[in-house]
Amino acid sequence: MFAWITLLPALYIGGRYILPLHLPLALRLLFFIGVVAVAQCHLVYKLVFGNRFAPEFPHSMMVAINGLFGTLIVFTLLLILCDLISGVQFAIQGTWPDYGLVRHGLLGVAVLIAAYATYQAVKVPRVKTVNLTIQHLPKAFDGYRVVQLTDLHASTLFTGRWMKKVVTRTNQLDADLVLFTGDVADGSVEKRFNDVAPLAALQAKDGRFAIPGNHEYYSGYLPWMQRMGQLGFTELINRSVAIEKAGNRLYVAGVTDEAALRYQQEGPDLEQALAGVDRHSTIILLDHRPENARENLAAGVDLQLSGHTHGGMVYGLASIVKRANKGFSSGLYTLDQRHLYVSNGTGLWNGFALRLGYPSEITLFVLKGDDTQAR
Question: Is the pTM above the cut of 0.85?
Fold first, then answer.
């Protein structure tokens, strides 16, 4: 179904731009074949590598493919806009205007926009600091520094070199906790072994904790859980841990991703994750998807950290992503004095590496207590 949808822009460009070009038929045909190949890049990934989630083309080729795919989408939208304007002029004047030169200019604009969107996707993310007031936070945890990383998607696009820069930037934050909310890599442990290796150098005073996202199941769940342990992460598979300071506790709990059910693994279970947890204590929950936040917060969770949406990635698409995730796609949401934070993602799936308006992030939370109430 997805292949047919992405074919439509290629057909539109073929009919409205390539066909009218004053070029030999053979050149126009080659041009159109190239456009179709870009439109069907995900099908190509599946045919060549057996998996559309983990293409293994070299880094520079993956950057180029994503830039071309972005150009295809943007140019299609600009052509549609141009044709709508032409239709209005036809209705008013009775003649169809010739916008041939304009269309060439629109192609140039599309290339520039797509190049910028690709750059925004693949660059090392900046740190986003969120000062967050937590109801009844124990004074011992006031100023506590929690770093969230998510959706790293290690691949030939996001390589070990990129990962090392992410780790260096994260370690400069003097984190008390580093929390990872899933989708560490695309591809098998063997192929991504060196790409994720820099994560072993992450530093946090009170530990590093993680949960699986959906892509861990696509890429080999058990080997990836073992690899994350080797890298120093404690996986919270429907369980929790307590962080103690001055006789006070803060709980970090984690649930699995619903994709687990399709791979005969343990599905998400909040009750199991919170078993034995004092519901009056401060609870941070790691849940890769944000869609269950209302239920999770109502169960006593003070802060849910999620990823998965990549923030919506680009204007327009973000509204669709938001509806698909029950109204949550990017940033901080406060529900009855409890919080959900949906990260835009530290990395991005290399099958759609484009960002416009929703930049990648390394998220630093500085926890503050509510001075009006005491624990």
Answer: yes
